[in-house]
Each structure stands twice: as C-alpha cells, then as structure tokens.
Amino acid sequence: xxxxxxxxxxxxxxxxxxxxxxxxxxxxxxxxxxxxxxxxxxxxxxxxxxxxxxxxxxxxxxxxxxxxxxxxxxxxxxxxxxxxxxxxxxxxxxxxxxxxxxxxxxxxxxxxxxx
Amino acid sequence: xxxxxxxxxxxxxxxxxxxxxxxxxxxxxxxxxxxxxxxxxxxxxxxxxxxxxxxxxxxxxxxxxxxxxxxxxxxxxxxxxxxxxxxxxxxxxxxxxxxxxxxxxxxxxxxxx
Lengths: 115, 113
What we know:
Chain A contains no helices and eleven strands. Chain A has 115 residues and is an all-beta fold.
C-alpha cells in the first residue's frame, strides 16, 4: 500500500541553525501539506502546496519557513533560523484528486528538537 | 472561522465494550468533510473514518462508525468491540475551504483489559 514517507525521523539542531525536513508524498497525489504538533497539543496546519506553489498558509508559517518540491517527488520544509519554540513533530500529508481533495494521508512525522 | 471542539480530554472503555467520542464543529461552508484520525504512542496520524457533509448516511468502517448530525454540527465516533490496540489519541478534523485540516484538541482513549 502506498504511503507517505518522511526523513529524518528525529532531528536535533541548535537554535539559529537551518533545517530541512523531507517528505516523499504518495506518487499520484497532487496536494501536499505540512502540519506541526507541539508536544501535548493539537495538530496545526502550516501550509498547503498545489501545482508547484503555495495555495494557503497559516499565520504560523512566517518568513522563517519555506516549502519546495525540488524534483517532482520530494516535498521539503525549510526552517531558516530555528527557535526553541519550533521544537515539535512535523507531519507531511498528501491527497489525491480521485480520493477527494480533503482526504489526507500523513507521513510518520519528523520530531524536531531545537536546543 | 472554522473550529473543532472535542470536549472529552480523556475517555476509558473496557475491552469488548463500546465507546463514543464526541466532536462538534463550526463552519460556514455548505460542502465539507469530517474525519477522525487516530494517533498511537508512535505519533503517526492514521485516518480512521471520513464523512462527506452532503451524505446523510453515516460512514462505517468495520468496528468504527460515526453519528453525523449536520444541523447540530456534531460528529461523534463510535468504537464497537473495543480492543487494546484502539488505545490512542483520537482527533476529530474538519476539511477546510482550502483543503487544510482543522483539528480538535484530541481525546485520549484508554482500553482496560
């Protein structure tokens, strides 16, 4: 069964450093998303991506964040200068038009720890 | 604004019994989707069940079913014949107008043997 994959599973970085979180969505999906979940809190939407551009972003997704689909298979989230409060689980999700644009399949997540 | 509210932070059920998790939502959209996701300790988000708002029939997936009350904006999840593996956080989610999901705060379900 196709699945969304994410690497790395756990990333530890120092405050102020740049990190890139990687995702490989399900191959025939067209819509891509990033969410984050601070420990013990609910999952929050960051950004959606369709047709090689951002379609929507939340207020959390400020200038420190960027997304890219560099090669037609990977989907990346970059945090330019990490802050302590960026420590969270980051989930990538994808959905396909034939499933209904809203049915999203999540990857296993990347746990980001900023020290 | 679209919101999702789960009023039960924690629930407990005896193995083989039935439990219902509550969810209410608010949206001005006429066409939308509702979901229940399961998050075990591994923190993977697993889609449990999906409901299209335009369908009156309640969705069912094996032991999981929903009670969708559109007028009341209520979307509860019923788990029948509960199993130890059902223990997890359960998140109710609303499909937003741009396709993003809006999640509730979750309900932690414990299953007692």
